[in-house]
Structures are given as structure tokens and as C-alpha cells.
Amino acid sequence: MDDIGKRFTNLFGGNPEVITTAPGRVNLIGEHIDYSDGFVLPFAIKNVTTVAMARRNDNMIRISSLQKAGEVVSIDLTSLAPQVGESWTRYVLGVLWVLKVDRGLDILIDGRVPLGAGLSSSAALECAVAIAVDHLFEKNLDQAQLALAAQKAENDYVGMPCGIMDQSVSLMAKAGSALLLDCRDLSTTNIPFDIAPQGLELLIIDTQAHHKLVDGGYAERRASCELAVKVLGITSLRDISVSDYVARKSELDPTTYIRGFHAVTEMQRVLDAVQALKENNFSKLGKLLNESHKSLRDDYNVSCPELNLAVDTALEHGALGARMVGGGFGGSAIALIKADHLDAIQSAIASAFDAGHFKAPRFFTSLPGDGAQVIAS
Ligand code: ADP
Ligand code: MG
Fold first, then answer.
1. pTM for the complete prediction?
2. What are phi and psi of 296, to 5 degrees?
């Protein structure tokens, strides 16, 4: 905290008026169902983005990030405009634009959420900026309003059509819990996910693979889910049980059927995972993670060799469960493991990647942490 305060003073002169933090996230289970009115169950990781901010007496916005070699970007408030340029500063400026900031600011960022690893450094940055602005300008927005503002910044200003999950969990997470988010009405419930006392740990494996979607992957799958809804004459895949869906198989073409099957079974797995957590039944949770991975791999067809290798190797070396996370075709996998297996599992995955001539993976571990906070003002 002091450190960023001193850096702020060295860079901009004067002291920051507020320092905030916001975490990255991992989605425990509930993949590719946000757009079918499903449930997701993310938790905040311990890695946070810290933002120090002070108001200025003019219209200038000056922004610097320790992750961008301390470069200082200056822009006049009156020239904020959505979807212009490629600069990383769009994530910050978008939030100022959505929250209608009407006064110049100095902003220093220190982001400890790995960038571009699927851990949502973008939401962490947006949310840390959003609560700093809320605090400085006494807007008194609640967490749901701040999440919507941060999402709007990413959708409209950055031009990335993300859902509300990342921003919601970055703002609302509680240590020792996962956040059940209902994508239909955006209601949230904290679910106990206290793995440390059980001697468990969540290993995150960033495969560093990024495969191009040869067949327009995301949009095509989303369209299949929408087609299934239309043909079955239901409001959303949320509104049909797994058994009813299976009974109506003949009404759908095979590709549509199997993609919709992933969605309806994954929604059920999220609810089953919530039940498993309430019962502290981590072997059941592990099995659900495995089933989620199989469904994403075989039915939804969004995995890739690197993700499968990470998951399979973790399981061969004693993980309770493992699955790919995020959109797929690369990115990260998670494994629920016994904490004292950590070194063995990491080195087994590293060796397997080496033997498979894949890029070396990056490893992170995290227990479920707290959401965004004002840490000094
Ligand atoms: P993810 O959210 O999974 O990390 P994204 O591509 O959505 O990946 O967002 C990463 C982008 O967010 C970075 O390329 C950068 O533009 C911006 N960003 C995030 N954190 C920082 C930071 N600390 N400093 C500067 N830019 C950041
Ligand atoms: Mg992101």
C-alpha cells in the first residue's frame, strides 16, 4: 500500500486520495452457459490489481501502469470516445466514461493478476478503477451497479462483448466462498468454498496455448443453443430438465442436440456442485469438475490437446478433479488437489508439456479471496 503511494508521489507529485484493490477470478464450474440463462460459480483469487488515484484541478487524465513500464498516458477528459485505438488504457478510460467523470485524475496501476491468462485482469482493473471513482466522487453506487458499469465499459468502450460474471465476482466475492451468479436475473449467493482447512488447494494451469477458432467457435455454439431453444419452443435451456431434453432428442439435428446437451447438463452440474460444497463433499465436487471437462471436450468440443493434457496429467497424479476453464481452445485449466501434492502435480504437468513439445505452462495457486476494497483514503 505504502509502496504504491510512494510511487504515485514520485510520478505525479502529491499523495493519492484513494487506494483500491480488486481481484481476478476463476470460474469453478458453469462453462458456456452464461448466455443460456444458466448459473456460474466463480471465486476471487488472491491476486489483485491495485489502483491509486487523486483528483486534479483540470480536465487531464494521466494514467500509468507498472505493468506497462511506467509509461504515462495523458488524455483530455473531453476527448474520451468508445472503441478508439488499441491501448490498454481503454479499460480505465471506459470506466471513467461510463461513470461520467467530470474532473481530471492521476491514476497509478499495479496489477498482480497475470494479464491475458484467463484470470480476468481486465475486470480486476475496471473494478478497482470503478470503486476508486465511486469513493472519490461519492457516487454511492452498490456493487451490482458498479459491476454493470464495469461491464458496460468493457462492452461499449473496449468493444469486448463479455458477460457480467467477471465484474460481479471481482466486486462481490467473499474469502472462503464462491459466488453463485444466476445469469438470468443477476442475483448472487455466497456459497462456502473453504478448502484450506481441508488441506486442499486449487491449482491453475495457464497452458499459454491460444488456438484460433477455425470454425467461428464461440458464435456458432451460441447459435446452436439458441436454435435448440427455438425448435423446442422453450424460453431458454434453463427451462428444461436433462431428462425432458433427452426425451426430445429426435426434434433436433445431432450437432444442435449435443451442444444443447452440454448446456443443460452443465447447469445441473453447477447446482450439484453447490450441493456438494454445502455438504463439504470435495470428492463429489471433483467428479463434477471432471464431468464438466468431458462435456466441454466431447460434447461442446471446445477443448484442445494442451488443456486435455493438463487435466489428464493432474488426474493421473492424484487430483480430485480437473477441467478446462473459460471459452476454450487454449487458456487455463484448474485442478482441485491436496496441498501436499502441489509440487508433484506441477512437475508432472511441466514434464508432460515438455514431452509433448508444447509451450511451458504457467502455474498459479489460489484460495478463494475477498472482492474489491478501498484500502486507504
Ligand atoms: P484477461 O482479462 O483474461 O487477463 P483480457 O485480454 O481480457 O485478458 O485483458 C487483458 C488486458 O487488460 C491487457 O492486455 C491490458 O490491455 C489490460 N490490463 C489488465 N491489467 C492491466 C495492468 N495492470 N496494466 C495495464 N493494462 C492492463
Ligand atoms: Mg478479460
1. 0.93
2. -70, -35
